[in-house]
User: Fold these one by one.
Assistant:
Number 1:
Amino acid sequence: MTREEVEVESYLSTETMMKELQTLLKELPYVYRLINDNNPIITQITADSREVKAGALFCCVKGYTVDGHDFAKEAYAQGAVALLVEREVLDVPIVQIKVNDVFRVLSFLANALYSYPTNDMHMIGITGTNGKTSVTYILEEIFKQNQARTALIGTIQMKIGEKSYPIKNTTPEPSYLFNSFRAMKEAGVDHCMMEVSSHALEEGRIRGIDIDIAVFTNLTQDHLDYHPTMTDYRLAKERLFQQLGNRYDPQYPKYAIINGDDPYADYFIRATSQPVVTYGLTKTSDLYASDIKLSATKTQFTLAGMVSDVTITSRLIGRFNVYNMLAAAATALKSGVPMSDIKAALESIPGVKGRFQSVQTTRDYSVIVDYAHTPDSLKNVLETVQTFTKGKIYCVVGCGGDRDKTKRPLMAHVGETYSDMTILTSDNPRTEEPEAIIKDMEQGLETTDYVIEVDRKQAIHRAIDLAGPDDVILIAGKGHETYQIIGRETYPFDDYQVAHDYLEQRLGD
Ligand SMILES: CC(=O)N[C@H]1[C@@H](OP(=O)(O)OP(=O)(O)OC[C@H]2O[C@@H](n3ccc(=O)[nH]c3=O)[C@H](O)[C@@H]2O)O[C@H](CO)[C@@H](O)[C@@H]1O[C@H](C)C(=O)N[C@@H](C)C(=O)N[C@H](CCC(=O)O)C(=O)O
Ligand SMILES: Nc1ncnc2c1ncn2[C@@H]1O[C@H](COP(=O)(O)OP(=O)(O)OP(=O)(O)O)[C@@H](O)[C@H]1O
Ligand SMILES: N[C@H](CCC[C@H](N)C(=O)O)C(=O)O
Ligand SMILES: [Mg+2]
C-alpha cells in the first residue's frame, strides 16, 4: 500500500475523548448558527465519513474532488451525532453547526476536543522545498541523544517513540493531526518535529498548533501545478513563520531558524515577529559552517558563530546535508540542547532512508538511491556525486505524473548538465502517459546523447550494465518509496531493491 493510498485504519489515540458539544462551542471564537439545537457528547471529530464512529462530530469539507456535505447522511448512519457544515444538510436530524469556513473551525474544535495537546509540547515545524524530512530525522537523533521523548511527522512515516505509523500526507489533516498529538502526549512525548508542506499551509491543516520553533530550509521550484506562481508558493511557506505569533515570552521564547544563504531568506525573516537565528556557510549567519571537506563516505566541517568552534565528522553526505545539519543544530541549540549532544548525534546518525543511500555492493562502482525530485535537489545531489567520482556519472531520472509539468524539462537539463549519461525513465506516472512525461522532459535537453527506457526497472538495469570501474549511478526521484503508481494502480517497486537484486544477480554470473 502506498503513502498516497494508505488507509490510516484508526486514529492513533485510543483514549476516549468526551466533551459536550456546548462545552466545545463555548470556546469557539467564531460566529455560528445551530440547526436542530441539541447537546450530544462528542467523542471524535473527523472530516472523513469512512472514519466515523459513534459519537462523532462529522465536519463537511468542500474538497478539490468531492464535497463532504454529500457524505453527511452516511456519517449519520455510522453514528455521527453532530455535523459541522457550511450549508444545511436536509434530512439529517442531528445538530448542525453552520459556519462560514468549516476547515478553520474544524481545526479549532479538534484542538479543543483533544485539550490543546501541543500547548505543552516542544513543537518544531520545518518547511522548505528540500530537506524537511532530513532535518526532522537529524533533530530526532539529537533530541534522543539529549534523552528527550520524541515524535516525528513527515513524508516517510509518523513516529512516536520507536513506533512507526503509516501516513497519508506529509502533513496530515487537522482531525488526524490533533488526535496524533493526543497519542503523543499519552506516550509521554515532549519533543515533536513535523514537516510542514506548502499544501498543508495553504489548506490551513496546521492551524491551532502551538509551534515553538519554525525552520526554513530553502525555496526553489516545485508544486507549480498547485501554487499558481513562485510568489504564492513562498507566501504559503511564510505562514509557518507568521504562526509563531507576535507575543514575545522571555521565559519560553519562540524562534525562527532561517537559512541565511537562501535568496528568499529576507522574506522569511520579515514574516515573523519572533527572534530569528540564521544559519549558512559564511560568517554573516548566526551559526555557520566553515572548512567543509566532502567525500563519498563522510562530511567534515567546523561549526562556529553562536558556539565555540567545534569540528563535526558526519556520515551524511554532501554540501546540502551541511545545511540540514546546521538547521538542526541551530534548532537544537535554541531548544537548550548542549553542543556535546548535538555533536554526538551528528556524528552517529547513519543516514536517512532513501536520501543519498548507497546500495551495498562489492562492485567497483557505486549506486546511490536518492529522493531528488526537484531541479534544485537533483543539481545538489549530482554536484555532490561529481566531487568524488573518478569515472562517469549515470543519472536515472523521471518525473511524477499529475504534478508540476514545468519542472520536467528543467530536471532533464540538470541531468544532462551534471552527469555523463542521463537515462530518462518513469517516476510515478499516475494518470498520465509515461511516454508523454518523458517527452516533456526531453524538451529541456540540448544534446541527443541520452537514453530513454520507460520501464524503471529496465532503466536501472541498463545503467548498471553501462557502468564501469569508478563510475557512479544515481537513481533519483523515489528514494524511500516502495511502490510505483501507474494509472490508478499501485505496484510494489523499490529502487534500492531493484538495484541490489540486479547487482547480486550479476555478481552471481
Ligand atoms: C490537493 C490536496 O491537497 N488534496 C488533499 C485534499 O483532498 P481533496 O480536497 O481532493 O479531498 P476530497 O477527496 O475532495 O474530499 C473532501 C472531503 O470529503 C471527505 N470524504 C471524501 C470521500 C468520502 O467517501 N467521504 C468523505 O467524508 C474527505 O475526507 C474530505 O474531508 O484533502 C485530503 C484529505 O485531507 C488530502 O488527503 C488530499 O491530499 C492528496 C492525497 C494529495 O495528494 N495531496 C498532496 C498534493 C499533498 O498534500 N502533498 C503534500 C506534500 C507535498 C510536498 O511538499 O512534497 C503533503 O502534505 O502531503
Ligand atoms: N538542504 C537541502 N537542499 C537541497 N537539496 C536537498 C537538501 N536536503 C536534501 N536535499 C535533496 O532533496 C531530496 C529530498 O530531501 P528530503 O526528503 O529531506 O526533502 P523534503 O523537503 O522532505 O521533500 P518532500 O517535499 O518531498 O517531503 C534529497 O533526497 C536530496 O536529494
Ligand atoms: N511529495 C511529493 C513527492 C514527489 C515524489 C516523486 N516520486 C513523485 O511521485 O512525483 C509530491 O507528492 O509531489
Ligand atoms: Mg519530506
Number 2:
Amino acid sequence: MRLRFTKMHGLGNDFVVIDAIRQPVDLTPERVRRLADRHFGVGCDQLLVVEEATRPDVDFRYRIFNADGGEVEQCGNGARCFVRFVHEQGLTAKREIRVETRSGIIAPRLEDDGLVTVDMGVPVLEAARVPFVSDSDAVVQPLQVGDASVAITAVSMGNPHAVQVVADVDAAPVEVQGALIERHPRFPARVNAGFVQVVDAHRIRLRVFERGAGETLACGTGACAAVVTVILRELAQSPVRVETRGGELDIAWGGPGQPVLMTGPAVTVFAGEIDID
Ligand SMILES: N[C@@H](CCC[C@H](N)C(=O)O)C(=O)O
C-alpha cells in the first residue's frame, strides 16, 4: 500500500497525518508501529487519520493512534494540527469545525493569527466519575509507585491522566516513575503520567510521560489535565500558561462543569509518500 502523508507537530509533539478521505487507507497496529518508527519509518509520537464524518452534525472524523499501535480517545496537540491540515489540504474553508473523536465531539477554531483554539470538552475527575465535585478526597489520591507514595489527581480529558505536583519538574523522575504509573494496576487501560511544577498563579511547567509513546516534548490533553489539577488544588487560577519542553500553551478553564479551552500553534513540516505492506 502506498500512502501519502504529512508530517506535523504541535510544540514538538509530532504526528504523521493521513488523509483517509481521498485515498484508501487500511491500518493495522503493525503498520502504525512501522510508520511511527523513527529509524525504519517516518517517525512520530502519534498517527492521525482524517476521515469523513459518520453523522450529519459534524464536519470530520479524526482517529488517533499512539506510536505503539494502540488507538486512543483524544489528542490535544493533534487536534490543532488536524485543523491546520484540513485547511491546508483544501478539505474545508471553515475556520471553526466540529470533529468526531473516540471520546466525543471537539470544536477547534483556526484563529486569525494562525494559532488554534480547541474546546476540549468538560474534564471528568476520574476518582468520582463526575464532572462536578467538591470532595477533596476525590481530587488528591495516594498512589504507591515502586517505593514512593505519590499524590495524584486522576483527570479524564477524554483520555486518562494521572497528574502529580512536583517541586522541580527538571528533577522529576519522569522516565522511571512515568513508566510505572503508565502501567499501574489502578489504571487498567493505562494512563498518561503528568508532572507539574507551579511557577505562579498563572504559570506552570509540565512534563508528561505519555501512554503508548513515552515522554513527549508536549502533551495537549496533559496540559489541560494539569491545569484542571492545579486549579482544583487551589494552586493556580485560569488562565494558565503551560511551559513544556517544546514550547508554551494557553489553557483557560472556568471550573467544574465547564469546558477546557486550549490555544497553541500547529506546524506542517513536510509531506511525502511511503510504501507500507
Ligand atoms: N500527545 C497527545 C495525547 C496522545 C494520546 C495519549 N498518549 C494517550 O494515550 O491518551 C496530546 O497532545 O494530547
